[in-house]
Amino acid sequence: MSDAKREWNYHPELPIGNAPYYSWPPNPVAIFKWVAMSWLKISEKMIFAAIAIATWFYLAPAIERCVTFQFDWIAQIYFKNLGLMFLIAGGLHLYLYTFNKQGKETKFDPREQTKKSGIYTFRSQVWDNMFWTCVSGVTVWTAYEALVMWGFANGYAPFLNWSDNPILFVAWFWIVPVWASLHFYWVHRLLHWPPLYRLAHSLHHRNTNVGPWSGLSMHPIEHVIYLSSLLIHFVVISHPIHLFFHCFWNTLGAASSHSGYESLIVKNKKQMDLGYFFHQLHHRYFECNYGNAEVPWDKWFGSFHDGSPEANEMVKERRRKMMGA
Questions:
Q1: Mean pLDDT over residues 136-149, rounded?
Q2: In which band, very low, low, confident or very high, does the pLDDT at 35 lie, cut at 50, 70 and 90?
Q3: CB 3.0 to 4.6 Å from 255: which of 89, 90, 112, 135, for a disulfide?
Q4: Burial class of residue 55, CB neighbours in 10 A (0-12, 13-18, 19+)
Q5: Confidence class of residue 314 from pLDDT cuts 50, 70 and 90?
Q6: CB neighbours of 69 closer than 8 A, spacing ≥ 6?
Q7: Using an 8 Å Cβ cutoff, are 252 and 84 in contact?
Q8: What is the DSSP secondary-structure string of 97-129?
Q9: Which residues contact 154 (CB under 8 A, 6 or more apart)?
């Protein structure tokens, strides 16, 4: 039995790779398959884009109300965000863990969520994760969203109408994951700076065996840093739909990507992709895979773990050097 088989309940074919956009020489077939997986079937991106459009038309406060900061429209954003978090993170947790609807099929880590441990708030991994997600995560998310909506309403954030540039309007749905990947890689490396890790990021890393509520379970300082990628909407012309998609990618996407399962299976049929083994490796080994599979920042900067035994040794050596320093 291979080392990987002993260590994991399930893992994809190894070694894992990154999105094929940046491969050389270019591989058009691989690029088409990646795009098709993202947009031409049920996927996180398609769902978040649909929710973003619905939010603009039905759930968000009218832009005219956002000219001045008022409790009513900010509260509307907060409860909208809280409801969506319970829908996605809570729904996945109920399906995968509470009701155990697909058993351990495509579950990476064989262990169950921790129920009695002093390292967690309330001595429970799930309650700890829900507390930090809802009390801090949704609050900071709402603050950033409200700030940018205020910027749109007052002309401080440049506003892009569909009629102004339809190509750019659509392109934003590709720009957001790429920008979020760049931002996440560098702020994530910053959060692994020992003083900041001990102060804030260690709370998120309580979760070596992640679940849907783990994704946004962070210290408030980390929430402020992690969600600061949303400030790009003050610099680059965009629309509130893009802001909402960006918010969902960073928050609801954290819930699905930390689900602990690679796929959602209903009636013995794979319905959509969920978690990425890429990030599961980070929660197991810590000093690797700081970004995500969307852009190969880790490969370019020498922190990529592809799941192989050789990569395990590379990470161990990195940690030995860091501990020695």
A1: 98
A2: confident
A3: 89
A4: buried
A5: confident
A6: 146, 150
A7: yes
A8: IIS-TTTTTTBS--SPPP-S-TTSGGG-HHHHH
A9: 67
